[in-house]
Amino acid sequence: MRPLAAGLVAVGLFSIGITGCTHAPSPExxxxxxxxxxxxxxxxxxxxxxxxxxxxxxxxxxxxxxxLNILHQLIEDEILQQRAAKLNLVAxxxxxxxxxxxxxxxxxxxxxxxxxxxxxxxxxDVRRDIRRTLTKNxxxxxxxxxxxNITDAEISNYYNVHxxxxxxxxPQYHLARIVVTNEPSKQVTNLQNSKAGNDAEAxxxxxxxxxxxxxxxxxxxxxxxxxxxxxxxxxxGDLGFVPESPLRSTYPEVFAAISxxxxxxxxxxxxxxxxxxxxxKVVGYAIYELIEKRPAGQREMSNPSVQMxxxxxxxxxxxxxxxxxxxxxxxxxxxxxxxxxxxxLKDGAK
Length: 350
Fold this sequence. Notes:
Blueprint: E1 29-33, E2 36-39, H1 40-50, H2 60-86, H3 93-104, H4 109-118, H5 123-143, H6 152-161, E3 167-168, E4 172-181, H7 199-214, H8 219-226, E5 238-243, H9 244-250, H10 252-258, E6 270-273, E7 282-294, E8 297-298, H11 304-333, E9 336-338, H12 339-348
Antiparallel strand pairs: 1-2, 1-9, 3-8, 4-5, 4-7, 6-7
Helix pairs in contact: 1-2, 2-5, 3-5, 6-11, 9-10
């Protein structure tokens, strides 16, 4: 099953003999999607970034596997982009500018320019990736999310089958968090999120995010755009429900802060400490939100939060099923030619 591409993967420059791909229009063309070319440079830029700060490079075979995976994701992305264009869902300049403004709000122009240089990106690279991400989101919302409908009967049936799961032996805390780390990294998982590179930048960024929350911005939205905590950040920073015992024993500072909150409130900025070294070195900062506290005991079907939680669970499952089927349908309809895969097979047969 080919999953619906969630976004561009970070990857870059690596030279492995790819010239002479069977019937390729030119040596630089790795694949075509309905005639649209995906070239070596498309994969090169992302591959290099995927290596991150690893001191040891991959073997030739490992590099080829990674590049092949990247190329497949770029093919899926191009299929989605072409579908969105047919439906007039391409993100507008105004939407791209708004996202770019959000990105720049967390740093000075000098810091922003330095981050682009470190990641070997131009402003047009960033704008292009923003546009493609927004476009895919609009496509999924129209073609998938809008078609998901969960009935009361489905919720009731799920509760009856899983009733024992709603009998809690101890209180649970539904938490979300925003994380900023102070460790530099060349790996880019979200081109719309400027990574803090040192402790001063981390403090400045978390303070900026704190200000956004204080001004009324939605916690999940801020986490999704700016938290340095993949893949949790892509889910709005949602940590799910955490039982009281492990929270109290493993993260006492977090528990102490959370236990003072009411649902919907957030903690002050809390330091994140590493597990090694004297004094437990601070490696970043976090802000937690208490979404809900569930007391111990049986939670009944009549509880609105029970119904809401089941509805969201069923909705997510159904949406994922539709996304997988939608991806398959689009892939089947597209005319895809992967010259790079052909070349790998040709070289391997020698």
